[in-house]
Amino acid sequence: MEGLSIVALLDVIGELFSDEISIAVSNTNEYIYYRPSKRIDLKISPGDPVRQGTITHKALESGQKVSEFIDREVLGVPYHGMAVPYHHNGELEGCVTAIYSSFTDGKSVITIKTQDGWIPIPFSDILYLEAKDRKTFVVTKTFSGTHMSSLQDFEYRLPRETFIRCHRSFIVNVHQIKEIYPDTHSTFVLAMANGEKISVSQSYSSYFRKLLGF
C-alpha cells in the first residue's frame, strides 16, 4: 500500500461503482477529486468551489452525514446523493460525496410506442418489462408497447422499491405479483396480476428472495 496514492485508491474504489455512482471529494472549500459515473455527471472539476445548496455543502455546513435529493436548479442536473464529512484531529477537513442518478427525473410514467402513437403509462399500471427481439416491451393488464431504452437502462431509472430484475429478460413490478411458486433448481415462477407466468432465473433467485424477504 505504500506506493498507492490517494487518487489511485479513489480511482479503484470509483471503478467498483462506475456504472451508477459518481464520487466527489472536497476540502472545506473546493473539490479536490471527482470521478463521474456512466449514469450521471455533474461536470465537477478539481478546484471548483463547493456551491451552496449542494449536498456536499450541506454536509460541510452541518458537520454530519447528509442523504437527500437535490433539485436541478442547483447544478443543472437533479441527483440523489450521500455526503459524509471527514475530520482529522477533531477538525473538519472535507467531505466525500456519492452521487446517484435521480432515475426518473421527477417523472412517474414510461411513454411507450404503440401502432397509433405514444401512450404515457404510470409506473403503478406496469406489470413487467421484457427484452425480446432486440426491443423492450412494456406490459400492462390491457396492452403493451415498446420503448427504445434497454432493460439495463430501466434498472437505473425505475424506482427500486417497486421494480426488480428477476431474469436477464424481465423486470417485474412487485406490486403486480399475485403469487410466487417454487420451481426446480432453487428458482421461482411468478404469477402476475394478468395471469401470465414469469420465471426467476437462478442467477437472480437469491437477490430476488432477499429483496422480497422470504
Description:
By secondary structure, the chain is α+β, with helices and mostly antiparallel strands. It is built from five helices and 15 strands. It has two domains: 6-101, GAF domain (Beta-Lactamase), CATH 3.30.450; 109-212, OB fold (Dihydrolipoamide Acetyltransferase, E2P), CATH 2.40.50.40. The chain is 19% helix and 41% strand. A five-stranded antiparallel sheet has the order 2-1-5-4-3. Strands 10-9-8-12-11 form a five-stranded antiparallel sheet. It is elongated and about 60 Å long.
Top keywords for this entry?
single chain, 214 residues, alpha+beta, Beta-Lactamase, OB fold (Dihydrolipoamide Acetyltransferase, E2P), five-stranded antiparallel beta sheet, 41% strand
- What is the mean predicted local confidence, pLDDT? 85
Oligomeric form: single chain
How does the helix and strand content classify structurally?
alpha+beta
Number of helices: 5
- Measured as a percent range, the helix fraction is 10-25%
What is the string of SSEs from the N terminus onward? HEEHEHEEEEEEEHEEEEEH
Proportion of beta-strand residues: 35-45%
Distance between the termini: 42 Å
Largest sheet: 5 strands, antiparallel
* CATH-defined architecture of the largest domain: Beta Barrel
Number of domains: 2
Strand order of the largest sheet: 2-1-5-4-3
What is the CATH third-level topology name of the largest domain?
OB fold (Dihydrolipoamide Acetyltransferase, E2P)
Radius of gyration, in angstroms, nearest whole number: 21 Å
CATH class of the largest domain: Mainly Beta
- Global morphology: elongated
Q: Which blocks of ≥5 consecutive residues have pLDDT under 50?
A: none
- According to DSSP, the number of beta strands is 15
